[in-house]
Amino acid sequence: MELNEWADRIEHISAGYGRVYGVERTPEWVLLKLTEEVGELAQAWLTASGQGRDRGLDTHEKQQALAAEWADAFGMMLVFARRAGIDLEDALTTKWLKWETDYTDETAVKG
């Protein structure tokens, strides 16, 4: 599945969440929700990496929680991009792939 297709599908799910819980998904709400999810990702990382309390989870459960929080943060990033009118693939190509040769070539010069 292409990245823009993921964004469309997750946006649809997020819209359903808004209807079920009576949340007006304004641009500000989406950004705040993204921020909340990134905080939860950081908390899961601290737990999984042994830098926070274990929350009564074993190693496998910690890794599952980390993956779930990553998915939440990434999903909300996709929703934010979609709501902001950002073409994900174009933005990533423009921002990152221009450096592909410079930083993947073993003979790249530091500068």
Explain what you see:
The protein is 72% helix and 0% strand. By secondary structure, it is an all-alpha fold. The chain has one domain (3-87): Orthogonal Bundle (Helix Hairpins), CATH 1.10.287. α1 packs across α3 and α2 (27-48) runs antiparallel to α3 (59-83). The mean pLDDT is 92.
Measured on Cα atoms, how large is the radius of gyration? 18 Å
Q: What percentage of residues falls in helices of 4 or more residues?
A: over 70%
The separation of the N and C termini measures 37 Å
Mean pLDDT: 92
What proportion strand? under 5%
> What would you say the CATH architecture is?
Orthogonal Bundle
The CATH top-level class label = Mainly Alpha
Q: How would you sum up the global shape?
A: flat
One letter per element, helices H and strands E, the order comes to HHHHH
- Per DSSP, the total helix count is 5
Can you tell me the CATH topology? Helix Hairpins
Number of strands: 0
Helix-and-strand structural type: mainly alpha
Number of domains: 1
Model regions low in confidence, pLDDT < 50 over at least 5 residues = none
